[in-house]
Amino acid sequence: MVRVAFGSERRAIHGEESLHTVEPIRWTAEGVVLLDQRRLPGEVIYHTYTDYRELARAIKDMVIRGAPAIGVAAAMGVALGVQRSKAKTLEELRAEFVLICETLAKTRPTAVDLFWAIKRFQRRFQELSLAAANDGGAGLARIRTALVEEAQKVHQERREADERIGRLGAELMPRSGRVMTQCNAGALATGGIGTALGVIRMAVEGGYRIEVLVPETRPYLQGARLTAWELHQDHIPLTLITDNMVGHFLKTGGVAAVVVGADRIAGNGDTANKIGTYGIAVLARENKVPFYVAAPISTLDLSISSGEQIPIEERSEEEVHHLAGVRISPQVRAAHPAFDVTPARFITAIITERGVARPPYEESLAALAAHS
Ligand code: MRU
Predict the structure, then answer these.
(1) Are residues 237 and 347 in the same domain?
(2) One domain for residues 155 and 169
């Protein structure tokens, strides 16, 4: 891993090719470049990864996060591993490919886009290796090139999906008023314009006068550190609130809609998203505020029928004990489920790039998944 740039130094190093400030990931000739989201908003630092194992570590350690961006990072991780592999035969490359996929699959358990990307690459590798079976070195070179192209295609598809989600979702937003979100489902979390924040961006671009209410999202503070920063970069009006203010604002704060992202959506519409989302959904229902989920089709997991089957990532207690690096609690036990599951009955609609699903979700999601 190479630290490539910091602040104005970044522009000097990357020149015209410099990453947009809210561009979290890019495939380059030197390797996979990631914006280090752990350091935001204080520092804008990029790292270049040339080894898939280090990239996997970066996903686990939250250098990059957000389900769709994790999917793009996994795709690039597989491509990087295969591109840099020293394998001389198809058998050697296949053995290494299995290891690469296993390593990446062990990083974040809840974000299903990770597994979606790995499965896509397993299918592609299978197709390519059949075609390359008797071609020796030339066949291996073709596999390497094709997988790099596939990773770039995944990234491009994410961008296009975000734009379509944004366009469809904007129609559901108020012409004027407050919209609440949770965590960060923005450009930082997808590599495009974002899902939930893509909806808000498109609405604002269409002339809607929206102010975003941003809960801080303890313990990792994705709301305070990332969403507030991202919206501020784009001059979208926002008010930062602490998580315990959510009920108060849904009751008295003139909130016209809630829009959040998702890490995994079960066949019945139950949705895993950042811890705290479930509480917001229940409070939204209590106060008759529509609650929307915005997510690409790759976040649907139709292999599971309900949210009870979604694995919930448990993160370190230390992230609960500390705030901005300062210990805030005595030596007691802390809990840190990183996600919760919002039952489908609290979700007004699920906005995907293929259309807006409404209850009953068993039918509407299955229809969108089948329609390519
Ligand atoms: O732990 P994180 O930061 O990866 O969690 C991110 C979220 O929960 C997002 O809301 C979700 O992945 C959707 S991102 C478009």
Answers:
(1) yes
(2) no
* Active-site annotation holds for 135: no
Ligand 1 proximal residues by C-beta, below 6 Å? 65-68, 111, 183, 185, 189-190, 195, 222, 261-263, 273-274, 338
Whether the model clears a pTM of 0.90, i.e. scores above it, the answer is yes
pLDDT tens digits for range 15-30: 444 456 689 999 999 9
Q: Which residues contact 268 (CB under 8 A, 6 or more apart)?
A: 305, 306, 307, 344, 361, 362
Domain boundary among 128, 160, 192: 160
Residue 115 per-residue DSSP state: H
Whole-number Å distance, alpha carbon 273 to ligand 1 midpoint, is 6
Query: Do residues 124 and 117 make contact, with C-beta atoms less than 8 angstroms apart?
Result: no
CA Rg value for the chain? 21
Neighbours of 194 (CB within 10 A): 31
* Greatest extent of the chain over all pairs of C-alpha atoms, in Å: 69
List pLDDT tens digits, range 88-104. 999 999 999 999 999 99
- 301 Cα to the center of ligand 1, angstroms: 16
